[in-house]
């Protein structure tokens, strides 16, 4: 068995690059970036073929396969970190508070958030429910602000698939 550190490093780096791009491309596809995702996939497949051919040409050395597998795992982790940093798209956060007379809706509106609110009945009584659409980049800030106003608030966030009209309609469709 030949120990070629340079080849191992190349295999690792190529697969790390491929899987990082693959993870980002998948997330772009899920967010509806219909031009950027296919363009990225063309670069991704070239890198994939290069890395796979390097491993296939030297299957007699299990270290090459190990470098390929390590690059794959590291690429997924880095791809997820990059996507978190980019924070593409929008999220919808539902906030429920026990204080039905809370000034939270207006406090959040004053910060620039679009807030729809209504009263609902929970197991333990009436609640104030807020529906807030925002960019993913602003999600952590909003969560911290809500908890600052009401530390007992209940929050749920999810990615909206389709958005039309309302407060964000002009901003949502830019760049896709």
Automatic annotation (TrEMBL):
UniProt superkingdom: Bacteria
Annotated ranges, domain DUF2179: 113-165
CDD domains (UniProt xref): YitT_C_like_1
InterPro entries reported in the protein's UniProt record: DUF2179 (IPR019264), DUF5698 (IPR044035), UPF0316 (IPR022930)
One GO cellular component term: plasma membrane
Assigned keywords, A-Z: Cell membrane, Membrane, Transmembrane, Transmembrane helix
Membrane topology classification: Multi-pass membrane protein
Domain DUF5698: 23-80
Cross-referenced Pfam families: DUF2179, DUF5698
Listed PANTHER family: UPF0316 PROTEIN YEBE
Membership in a protein family: Belongs to the UPF0316 family.
Name of the molecule in the record: UPF0316 protein SAMN04488507_101069
């Amino acid at each position: 068995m030949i120990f070629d550190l340079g080849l191992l490093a190349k295999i690792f780096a190529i697969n790390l690059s491929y899987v990082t791009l693959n993870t980002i491309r998948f997330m772009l596809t899920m967010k509806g970036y219909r031009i950027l995702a296919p363009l990225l996939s063309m670069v991704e497949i070239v890198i994939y073929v290069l890395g796979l051919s390097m491993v296939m040409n030297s299957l007699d050395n299990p270290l090459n396969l190990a470098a390929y597998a390590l690059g794959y795992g590291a690429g997924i982790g880095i791809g997820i970190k990059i996507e978190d940093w980019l924070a593409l798209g929008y999220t919808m956060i539902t906030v429920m508070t026990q204080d039905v007379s809370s000034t939270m809706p207006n406090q959040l509106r004053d910060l620039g958030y679009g807030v729809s609110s209504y009263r609902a009945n929970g197991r333990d009584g009436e609640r104030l429910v807020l529906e807030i659409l925002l960019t993913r980049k602003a999600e952590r800030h909003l969560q911290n602000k809500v908890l600052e106003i009401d530390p007992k608030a209940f929050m749920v966030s999810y990615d909206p698939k389709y958005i039309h009209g309302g407060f964000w309609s002009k901003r949502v469709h830019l760049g896709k």
